[in-house]
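ok so for the tutorial part 2 we go from a plain amino acid sequence to predicted structure tokens. step 1 is just haveing the sequence, like this:
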Amino acid sequence: MQREYQVVTFDCYGTLIDWETGIRASFKQALRELELSQSEEARVFDLYEEEEKRIEALKPYRSYREVLSEAASAAARRFGKNIPKELSALLAKQLPGWNPFPDTNPALERLASKYKLGILSNVDNDLLTGTLKHFNIPFDLVVTAEQVRSYKPGRKHFEEAQRIIGDKGWLHVAASLYHDIEPASKLGIKSVWVNRKKLVAGRNYLGLAREVENLTQLADWLAP
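step 2 — the prediction. this is what the tokens look like for a chain of 224 residues:
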């Protein structure tokens, strides 16, 4: 009996890699001289996230390094303090060093024995190349923003993955409702939401096959 899925793809940062811990540490390092309170630091980070989404949606396409730089500058302007120029350079420099979640590699190893695995990521090729060194298994398919000159939640990552995958059963796994689960839903792609923070979705997504708290639960389901 053939399995329903033959290919499992993942968002990378926030799903496989502990993006938030990494980026918050970079922010703290770059902003240390401003001596911000914890709530001020959190506010800058929230502004940064808003600006990153806004800038990724702009035309023409910008490299992720440019997105990092523009988003950091825009967050600084909105916050009203002069955030050091080193922040955007620091983010790009440190990103390849950010670590996987503890459950990532054990789960990937289990899944790799039964499925072809892939990554759909909103970054430049060279940044992802640095990150791939943290994984114990190779990926069969990689689609980056640089390759498709677009950022999720745009359709191009998913369309390129579909072109490569063809008619095989495909499941996409991600932590971000905004960047991944929602566009996958609109395109009729089956998905799994990795809800590590135990958030409430706020709405139902067509095609959401399962919600898990971590990748161990995903592996328990797909590769028992």
